[in-house]
Amino acid sequence: MSEKTNVIALQNLELKLGYAFEDIKLLEQALTHRSFGPIHNERLEYLGDSILGMVIAKDLYDRFPKCKEGDLTRMRSTLVRETMLAQIAREFELGNVLRLGPGELKTGGFRRDSLIADAVESIIGAMFIDSHESFELVRQNILRWFKTRLETIKPDVDQKDHKSTLQEYLQSAHLPLPEYKVESIEGTDNEQIFVVSANVKGYEKQIGRGSSRRRAEQVAAGLVLELIDKRKKYK
């Protein structure tokens, strides 16, 4: 990408973000994966993650005054989880402007949820620094990005992840807890795919795949829950 093209791409991104950077190098750093070079976005991601969690937590606290802590926590987790941030990243088309090393480019890192979700958090950290630590300005931007999601999320809808839901069901039924096992790790070092089995007494072993062990376990647990639901229907 030429310098002129890069400037135009960053300006277009600023329009989508609703924020114009005083120091454009901060935005460039927020879009730089560690595979690209020694100056990357991991520290900005750390900062942005904390700010995002605080902004969403406070909005939910104000929006649902009668909600218990557990419901608020589950809703916050739903809103700030990787898959949700990756959706927002795709709305901003961050994959087109990420700066990745040759290995990540070759393996399609610009499409990977983890990388583009991290970039969203990095941009939040970069905005905070660039705005001279104006928490209010950054808060307003975040709430605009999440507006429709905050308006549609509900405390009475189950926000639990598959592993938690499966564990609670098995405990309530007085059944043994599931056993998760890494069956194999496929792919290259830059793009590993974990293959994990979920073993639940009385059900066929289910296999989940994901870019991390945790994600693969969630997929496998979800497949077990589907088997449980099917069995309930035919009882």
TrEMBL record:
Keywords: Cytoplasm, Endonuclease, Hydrolase, Magnesium, Metal-binding, mRNA processing, Nuclease, RNA-binding, rRNA processing, rRNA-binding, tRNA processing
Residues annotated to bind Mg(2+): 45, 118, 121
Lineage: superkingdom: Bacteria
Domain DRBM, chain residue ranges per copy: 161-230
The RNase III domain, residue ranges: 10-132
Substrates-to-products reaction catalysed: Endonucleolytic cleavage to 5'-phosphomonoester
Cofactor(s) listed in the protein's UniProt record: Mg(2+)
Acyltransferase listed as a keyword: no
Record EC number: 3.1.26.3
Gene3D superfamilies attached to this UniProt entry: 3.30.160.20, Ribonuclease III domain
Active site: 49, 121
GO MF terms, alphabetically ordered: ribonuclease III activity
Subcellular location, record wording: Cytoplasm
UniProt-listed InterPro entries: dsRBD_dom, RNase_III, RNase_III_dom, RNase_III_sf
Record keyword Transmembrane present: no
CDD domains xref list: DSRM_RNAse_III_family, RIBOc
PANTHER family to which the protein is assigned, alphabetical: RIBONUCLEASE 3 (PTHR11207:SF0), RIBONUCLEASE III (PTHR11207)
Assembly: Homodimer.
Family, as annotated: Belongs to the ribonuclease III family.
Function: Digests double-stranded RNA. Involved in the processing of primary rRNA transcript to yield the immediate precursors to the large and small rRNAs (23S and 16S). Processes some mRNAs, and tRNAs when they are encoded in the rRNA operon. Processes pre-crRNA and tracrRNA of type II CRISPR loci if present in the organism.
Protein name, as recorded: Ribonuclease 3
Gene from which the chain derives: rnc
